[in-house]
Write a structure and sequence with these properties.
0% strand; globular
Length: 112
């Protein structure tokens, strides 16, 4: 469920991030080990030169987030998720094209 929500927010044309952010935060807080594993998988799927940037974006996603589901915490996570999504969506625009292809790599491998 967590990977599906994250995939919807980041890879699909998600118009209502608010409705995705609420259950995603709960799942991240409940299943921290799975979240860490998913995060590492996504980071490792990036070109080496982009891995540090992606790792920083994941750190920023949880910046200021407490281990609770208070309204203030949920709002902060929604803001962080919006910034995270913007950065990830713009990642291919900052990637150099390879000489044998005119299509950049996707921001992360499919998580499904």
């Amino acid at each position: 469920m967590m990977s599906s929500l994250l995939n919807n927010v980041l890879a699909e044309d998600c118009r209502n991030q608010w409705s995705m952010s609420r259950p995603l935060l709960v799942l991240i807080l409940l299943y921290e080990d799975f979240y860490r594993s998913l995060k590492e998988s996504i980071i490792c799927g990036q070109p080496v030169e982009k891995q540090h940037t992606m790792a920083q974006w994941f750190d920023d996603l949880m910046l200021g987030i407490e281990r609770n589901v208070s309204s203030k915490n949920k709002e902060k996570f929604t803001q962080n998720l919006s910034t995270f999504r913007r950065d990830v969506v713009n990642l291919p625009k900052t990637m150099a094209y390879s000489t044998d292809s005119t299509t950049p790599s996707p921001p992360f491998p499919s998580m499904l």
